[in-house]
Amino acid sequence: MTEGSMPDSEGKYSILRPLGRGGMGEVYLALDNRLQREVAIKYLRTDLTEDGDWHERMQHEALLLARLNHPNIVQIYDFFEAGEAPALVMEYVRGRNLRIYLREHRAELADKLRWLSEISAGLAASHDAGVVHCDLKAENVLINAEGSAKVTDFGIASHSGDRADDVAALGVLAQELLADNAAVVSPTVRDLLRRLSKRGALTAREAAAQWRHAWLEQTQSETPLPSQLRAQQRRGRRRATAALVAVLVVSAVVLAWQLRTPAKAQAVAILPPVMRDPGQLSERQQQILESAVAQSLQEAVLGSQRLSLVGMTEVDTVQGSAAEKLVALGADILIASQVKCSGTVCDLDLQRLEKPSGQVTSYRKVSVIADSPLGTHEAVSRQWTYLFPGQTTANNGAGALDEADYLKYTELNLAAQQFSRSSRSILAAVESLLRARRDFAPLYYLYAQVALDTYEEMGDPMYLDRLERTLELADPALARSLFLRRSRFRLDLYRGDYQAAREVIRELEQEGADDALVAYLTGEWHGAQDQFRAAGESFARAAALQPSMQYLYAQARNQYWNGQPDAALATLDGLLKRYEYNTHALGLRAVILLEQGKLAAAEQALRLSLDIQPNPLVRANLGMVYLLMRNYPAAREQFLEAYDADSRDSVVLLNLADTEQLLGNVERGRELYRQLVARYSEGDPSVITTVAAQAYAQLGQFEEAMATLKKISLAREQASSPAVSAALVYTLAGQHLVALVEVDRALEAGVSGVMFDLPFFDPLCTEVRFRELMSEHDRDGRCEQLPGATATAGIATEKR
């Protein structure tokens, strides 16, 4: 074959040069003229073209390879007849086969273990597709330019072969590959080699997980522990001469101080992957691929003790150059990724950029398969040691998953980010996966995040109970991961177990955790106990050490809780200059503006937040704005959407019931009030006391309403001020003098007079003192026109 167009390929390919000759065919490097990429073309040798059996075998190889889609298997792109000879168009792997590579390079033990993990993973993928290789050996493994292994040459593969033969061949290959390292391999590796020598003892999938574990164990062992460093120092001092003793003592003191006070953890921000060319990928395929890339990088950072992950909610809201993003995020390192696809094969570029200028300090390029999120995860994980040399990350257990389960996890992670499924649905699906895959750490991360965020939104302790049970499934080592300990910390705070929460902080301090994180958690601990001054000092320290969105938001929220709304707004304004589209900051700002009676500004902030990211809690707050504006149809629409989003939030249900009443849907409103009262009387802790009191009053059950008010604790509740609720109850009961006392108390506590614009308070307009209070709080025209007075009177009659 000479350089030029391949015969009978319709000009699709141009031959560049020969690559080699095998038992069945000759292999050429060619150019795909349509996609402008290099490919390898293997066509049947001319001396074999008359042999129908060889022709069938090559077709057989093409059909088998077409079923295999994995980053550790050489991919097939096309098959056609070249004259009388069949031709197979494959991925071009720029590299050498393993046998030749070992002759030409000195391979580290860690590389060999990683290759065995990759070979096993490719083998497992072929077995999952029902294909047995039947000829696994060093010559049929390619090492590409990135140093990754790919299984090739399925020429004699079979559907009916025995998978145990492939695993046995894997064991032989492993013994051969590790022969020079026999004296230094770990007990884990020795045990694995022993098990592979026993036919049927392991599947390829199990071997892949074991080899990956061995590789991670080896890379972690290459980083000396502090105790090992100190031992080396002691040995060095014993060998030193007397003349150097003083110098060494000083060095030892400095080293010991460094070991007691670890350097600040590096903050890493994972930028959303950029899809440069989706090729023929559907929008859903693009989303899955992007999610698999991002979550794999995030999990690696979470598994490192010396790195701190910047939250994705922060990352998604910043724009500008790399240097500007580093400043805005308070990050030390950015990881950027770009994807360019052809068919289902995609090139993934990974870059590490560092402050202050955003200079690229590391670059990796790897091929991934769009339809294989697990393969993408494995490919990205292999780049970790290149992007973060010297940094280790915990084994997250992905090796125990198959492709279908990892796809489910990726889809659930995506659904949680996009709010495309209800929280209950996501939690139930994760629980189901965890029953089968208890060793996969990211499932616990996802479950804890969704459960805790849902509890914050809905206040239902059921989510805390479910999280408690789920965390008990995690093995002890996983339970001590930083992320799950932070989740346990939040759980302890919500439970009111402050001693247990403080113990988590103490442990992290002793282990040398990031100072900013410790300060932030300390602030959360103080804030949960209403120790706002101490909390403010801790949050200010955290923000000074690392001005991240999370720490600045915590500072603003604490100021709000401490009765400093103007200070909170100032902090939020500063935060929003950095993170213009941060939904948490926009939401809190809207709540403060709402309480200050600035309804138009509150509506604008909530609308912007919803445009960025749908959220039932934001919808509920927007509904409250419309309720106070007396735009009841718009309020009803928002409350319905909030409630339909799987919300058992009793405040949302109460507001919806109020809106139905004000629209004249009296019976529907009463039905919702009855639901709340029934749940409260049955002991449902998600129905808070102020809500129950108002529901009783709206049903005309005033004795029960007043008895319920007496149960209200002085502690802060997850609702409007108890004084507002009490004022409403007494107004509906016709006890205006007591109601006025509560109105006065609410206004003194900082509640805006706009909260008393609801028609339910219209009967108080007959009282001089109420009109005076409204005038004192910038509501002069409150009682001049009463558009809802007639409707309110009708409602009051119905309730009584």
Describe this structure in words.
There is one protein chain. This protein is an alpha+beta fold. It folds into seven domains: 4-91, Phosphorylase Kinase, domain 1, CATH 3.30.200.20; 98-221, Transferase(Phosphotransferase), domain 1 (Orthogonal Bundle); 226-261, no CATH class; 264-386, 3-Layer(aba) Sandwich (Rossmann fold); 433-513, no CATH class; 516-564, no CATH class; 648-799, Serine Threonine Protein Phosphatase 5, Tetratricopeptide repeat, CATH 1.25.40. The chain has a six-stranded antiparallel sheet with strand order 1-2-3-4-6-5, covered by helices on one side. Strands 10, 11, 12, 13, 14 and 15 form a six-stranded mixed sheet that branches. A three-stranded antiparallel sheet has the order 7-8-9. The longest helix has 20 residues, at 109-128. The radius of gyration is 33 Å and the shape is elongated. The protein starts with a strand and ends with a helix. Mean pLDDT is 80; it is low at 222-263, 713-720 and 787-800.
